[in-house]
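Lecture 7 notes: from sequence to structure.

We start with a single chain of 409 residues. Read the sequence below before looking at the structure.
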Amino acid sequence: MSKVEQRLPVGEPIAVDELVAGALAAPADGPLKVGDERVVDFLVAFARQLLRPAVARRYPELASLGFFLRRGEIAKAVARVADEPGALHFPRGLVFHVPPANVDTIFVYSWALSALAGNANIVRISSRSAGAATAVLEALNGTEAHPAVRQTQRMVTYGRDDAVTAALSAACDLRVIWGGDRSVNELRRHQLKPSSRDVTFPDRSSFTVISAAGWLGATDGERDAAALGFYNDSYWFDQAACASPRAVYWVGGEADATRARKDLETRLLAVIGSKRPEVDAAMAVEKRVATYGLAAEGAATGIHFAGNALATVDLAEPGLIPRRWLGVGTFPQARVDALADLAPIVQRRDQTVTHFGFAADELVTFARTLAGRGVDRFVPVGDALNFSALWDGYDLMREFTRLTTITAR
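Now the structure, written as tokens:
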């Protein structure tokens, strides 16, 4: 069988059976447990590396990861699976993670939570991952770790090798698959043990809802902060993250919505001017092909470009939202009178709704109207990419542990 490249800890190529045996071998000072301090200390030290100014300036998305791994946040995650009378939480065993290449730090979140749950982990890092993923791996390898952590936490890279994937799938107790419907279906061809199962993150899409009256009633500072937050939600990861908004809905009267939309665009262009996102020629062409394609399909009545970094599309009607990726900085938009008007549009694949200008009770009412048919999370504009232990409708810490119940007379 082919060998795999060891990325964490860095080492010579290793055979899969040797990799699995090493990860599952009992550490000399005892196996990992839920909330193990050896793992906690490693993650906290790793977070400090990510929050160093030099790293955070170059890869601002890693600052969010660093905050996610602060000791206080880790304690909250572990508390979700604290033992209780009559019920004990234990690690599942070996977890095999297959993250996507287009959001090249998402693997750290699921791996970190699984490690906190006391599991041995093997993470496949795509050979196409670069940039922030490389910085993450350098920080991981540069962080002092207890031998038990180095032994049980492995990250590897290998090409399209079905034999390797099949072996890792057969060995694991839980398989975590990110990256879309196609990836999920391809990975599911490789059988698991009868006692094992998958946690899957298939194709998802997200959108933003903005109250026109709420926007116009906000202060300049609030609107500037929202424009910056919208930029971060969208332009980090080239708008390819499942939680990045791929459409904007304005809620309210037509006159207010027109004014509010123009104001957001003006402020967003100012942010773009200061951030200077890189949009190469190929991306610019792809955006034009995608947006003009919407017009050809009858889904769009207007297309507007502000340089290569921003494209807005007037949808012919709200229900014609294109859930596919159209290129970074592309925003189909439509107006509705009320949040409830969006209910028939929502599909199961809709994951995150970022919002501005709505009260909590309005969002709760909307969520109850949807009744679980779609949308797993409602977060303020600017928080779309803030990962949580509750993701895609999963309570991940509970997914990464198994429960033993005890009944005594």
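The chain has a mean pLDDT of 94. Keep this in mind for problem set 3.
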